[in-house]
Each structure stands twice: as C-alpha cells, then as structure tokens.
Specification:
This protein has 271 residues and is an alpha/beta fold. It is built from 9 helices and 9 strands. The structure holds adenosine-5'-triphosphate and magnesium ion. The site of magnesium ion has 3 residues, from helix 2.
Length: 271
C-alpha cells in the first residue's frame, strides 16, 4: 500500500503533539513534548506538583500557546470551530462553583449540550434532553437530579461536572484531577464508567491525577511528565518509585530531599 492511500484510509489521530515547548511568564514549563493519542485510549498523566500537567491540558485546549511545536486535535488546531464540540474538559476546580449559584444538577448537565446553532431546533432539544438524562444516570445522580448543586457533597458536585462533559458530544475528554474529594467507592465506579466509555463508545480520555493507585488500575497507558515526558508506555510497564527517581536523574539516596518528597508525595497517594 502506498503512503497516499494509507493516509486516506486511516483517520487522523485524536491528538497529535509535536516538538511542543510552552513558556509561562518567561519560564519554560514544557519542553520538547511529542504525544499522539488514538481513538479509544485512556491515558493517565502523573508527575510532581508544578511539573506542567495542567499547563499541558491548557495548551491542548488552546488557552495557552506553544512557544515551539504544535498541537493538533483531529488534525485541526485547538480552538478551531471544527473541533469545538468534540473536546470536553473537567477541571480540578470545576466543581467549586460559587455558593450563590442556584442551579440544579439537570440544569448544569444541560449546559454541556448547548452550542450555538442547535439552541432553537426542536429535534436537538429532545436529543439533548435524552443525553442529559443518560449522563445523570451514568454518574448515579438520578436521585438528586432536580436538587440545587449547592446542597450536594463535593463528590456529588464533581460527578455532576463529569456528567456535563458526558452529555456533550465530546469524544475527547480532558480531566484535570477529577477524583479529588470523591470517596473510594464512587471513585472506582467513576473510573469504571470512564473505562467503559473508552471501550464501548470510542471516547478518548486524557486524565491527570495524583491518585496513582486509582489511575494505574484503569488507564491503559501512563505518562510521567516533568517538564518533558520521562515515561510513556503501557500501564503495566510503569516504573516503580525508585526507577521513577532515576528517570528524574536523581540518585535515590536517603539524604536527597527532592527524591524523598517525590516518594512521600506518591506514597501518600498509595495509601
Ligand atoms: N499563570 C501562570 N503564570 C506563570 N506561571 C505559572 C502559571 N500557572 C502555573 N505556573 C507555573 O507553571 C508550572 C507548572 O504549573 P502546572 O499548574 O502546569 O503544574 P501541575 O503539574 O499541574 O501541578 P499540580 O500537580 O500542582 O496541579 C509551575 O511552576 C507553576 O508555578
Ligand atoms: Mg495541575
């Protein structure tokens, strides 16, 4: 098969990042990142605080601009109207809505379905209502669907913002610490749900989490990011903590505070 017909037959990757460097306030935060995600992958990103994980997600979203290199989503630049409704995002802070915001779970989830162009079309409204109902069911919030979100627990609110992303037509969803404040049982249910979405509905998920145990149980592929990508491979090959220290070019000796911090950080999450 010649390369031309191969190009026509294979879809472009969901995400293609090449040679990416990003600077914030003059400081180089990401350097020489190459990353390709294909449809249906569930990829976990870990790394110490301040290592550039959120910066990477913000660059994929197009909020931060590369100093060098590029990001393409379905072969389009971030922020391109052609991929606008294909990209979802659930952030660390998404569930911290202002106290005075009175909005029910159903209303919040409905916001995920709104885009310019479909607001006045009856058929889309019906489709949207169905997607909202399904998303609420998927995250297990049916009982509180019509309750104001300010009356929910932190974990329930987080599930509501995940449902908002699920109700949209996004097929590529970025998660920045979505498991914070969620109890272990709900966390496991949610991870199972996200895994099913990848397997059964071809969604692609890129998830940043400090919860190493949880993410290792679910992600198919793991990335260790610290300015650049130090590891990218199948989850079963993810290095142990001592090898991680080596990846960072640090000798794992007792007196090395930096290594200890890393280990303490990860060990805490392993509890
Ligand atoms: N608005 C900003 N302007 C300048 N520098 C910033 C800004 N936000 C973050 N940074 C710096 O960029 C670096 C990477 O931050 P980032 O938030 O991407 O890290 P992170 O890996 O997501 O950390 P965490 O695990 O704490 O969420 C840090 O050194 C941080 O101080
Ligand atoms: Mg972050």
């Amino acid at each position: 098969m010649d390369t031309k017909s191969e190009t026509i037959l294979s879809d472009p990757p969901v995400l293609r990042i090449e040679n990416l460097s990003v600077r914030r306030s003059g400081k180089l935060i990401l350097k020489d990142i190459d990353l390709t995600l294909t449809n249906g992958e569930f990829v976990g990103i870990v790394g110490p605080n301040g290592s550039g994980k959120s910066t990477l997600l913000l660059t994929i979203l197009g909020i931060l601009k590369p100093e060098k290199g590029f990001v393409k989503i379905h072969d389009n630049l971030p922020m391109s109207p052609r991929i606008y409704d294909k990209l979802g995002w659930v952030s660390q802070a998404a569930s911290h809505l202002p106290k005075n915001v009175r909005i029910t779970v159903r209303e919040l989830v409905h916001l995920g379905t709104i885009k310019v162009g479909n607001m006045f079309m009856e058929s889309d409204k019906k489709g949207a209502r169905e997607r909202v109902g399904n998303a609420i069911k998927m995250v297990g919030l049916e009982d509180v669907a019509d309750v104001s979100i300010d009356r929910l627990s932190g974990g329930q609110r987080q599930r509501a913002v995940i449902a908002r992303a699920l109700a949209s037509k996004s097929d590529f969803i970025l998660f920045d610490e979505p498991l914070v404040g969620i109890d272990r049982e709900t966390r496991n249910d949610l991870l199972k749900l996200l895994d099913d979405l990848c397997h059964n509905e071809g969604k692609t998920i890129l998830m940043v989490s400090h919860d190493l145990t949880a993410i290792r149980q679910t992600a198919h592929r793991m990335i260790y990011l610290e300015e650049s990508i130090r590891f990218d491979g199948p989850t079963e090959d993810f290095p142990d903590l001592v090898s991680l220290a080596n990846l960072r070019g640090i000798k794992p000796v007792h007196s090395d505070n930096h290594t200890e911090n890393l280990l303490v950080n990860f060990n805490e999450k392993l509890k």
